[in-house]
Amino acid sequence: MKRILQDASFKELSSLVLAAGEKSFRARQLYEGLMQGKKISEIPVSATLRAKLLEEYEDEPVKIKETFLSEDGTRKFLFELSDGNLIEGVLMQYKYGNTQCVSTQVGCRMGCKFCASTLGGRVRDLTAGEILSEVLVVNRLLGGTPKERKVTNVVLMGSGEPFDNYENVVRFLRNLTAGEGIGVSARNVSLSTCGLVPEMRRFAREGIPLTLTVSLHATTDEERRRTMPIAKRYSISEILSACEEYFRATGRRYVFEYTLISGENSDRAHALALAALLKGKPCHVNLIRLNEVKERRLLAAGEREARAFLSTLEKEGISATLRRSMGADIGGACGQLRRYYLEKNPPSSPQKEEEED
Ligand code: SAH
Q: How far does the centroid of ligand 1 lie from the alpha carbon of residue 38, in Å?
């Protein structure tokens, strides 16, 4: 695979263009074209510069291979990377704008028991420019430009664990939020982690004020270890103190994701325990009923149980919402679409897969 030009910041791209003996306005032209989601070969730079670039860089790092439209307006994208790997993304339409959910790795090695993305382990990390390209190509498809964005919000909640690909993800965030680029405000970005505590702490020092979201899904370490192997490494109390650090550094309220699984974490006692754990903290809880994954035996909590859970939290003074499960008819859960696709169209050469750790 060639290199990814969209990895570069405007400054880096400028030095590259100048080093190739071109004038600086060429760098601006090139950067603007890339931020519009164009392929290198579509951008009107000089023929020599284009030829030089195409020798070294991928013309189109992320291709939209298929689009699925759900009845509720949610769109799901299957993207193809230059090496043939597949990733997926979702676009959810809300009153205030469009939120795109991006993947940060091909597969995942965190091993959460409810998640489809991790079933085949991690294949590879995405580069910063590949993650950015997911946004650029979808914004373009919807008729958006960097000035008039159709993708207004970005959530790092697709396949992969963002903090297991720390450097690339931070570079992506800097390029996504750079004023001279597509310029999505950090306030409109959420990063979801299963709770890699050292990286959470490190991230607090990066000065990127986004919405830090932690997938909690349990109220005690013992219960958390049943569904999330990462809980063997870091405790809930370490996670809470890393969240506090992030809040002190950025002033941003943090969010906990809590997936309601029948017979596992969804009764009244769990709601009370969760409220006790989070009382008085500058946080919000996002509840979601499990999106059932056919390879897993876990079942979703019922509608009524989910609403009761929410109301217990609210009575206890915890800010919380129960999210609608969107796009269920098109394989909405993390990693489902890629798996369906790979089952229907097995890759000709087996993909490299890593063991879960
Ligand atoms: N690795 C990151 C981000 C990707 S998962 C993380 O763990 O947070 C995004 C969110 O979807 C997480 O909260 C995850 O726990 C949740 N999730 C994964 N599979 C799910 C499923 N089948 N049903 C409901 N939520 C799921």
A: 31
| Backbone angles phi and psi of 179, in degrees to 5 | -60, -35
> For the packed helices 166-177 and 128-141, what is the interaxial angle rounded to 10 degrees?
40
Among 150, 146, 129, 210, smallest CA distance to 180 is for: 146
pLDDT at residue 342 greater than cutoff 90: no
- The domain boundary, picked from 60, 77, 101, lies at 60
pTM score = 0.93
Q: Please write the tens of the pLDDT for every residue from 82-136.
A: 999 999 999 998 888 999 999 999 999 999 999 999 999 999 999 999 999 999 9
In a domain, 288, yes or no: yes
Q: Which of 196, 215, 294, 298 to mutate to test the pocket of ligand 1 (most atoms within 8 A of CB)?
A: 215
Give yes or no for a contact between 298 and 292, defined as CB atoms under 8 angstroms apart.
Answer: yes
Of 288, 286, 287, 214, the C-alpha closest to 247 is 214
Question: Of ligand 1's atoms, which has the minimum distance to the CA of residue 257?
Answer: 13
Q: What is the distance between the alpha carbons of residues 189 and 175, in angstroms, rounded to a whole number?
A: 13
13 and 96 part of one domain: no
* Cα of 329 from ligand 1 centre, angstroms: 18
180 & 319 share domain? yes
The DSSP symbol for 126 reads P
The span from the CA of 232 to the CA of 226, in Å, is: 9
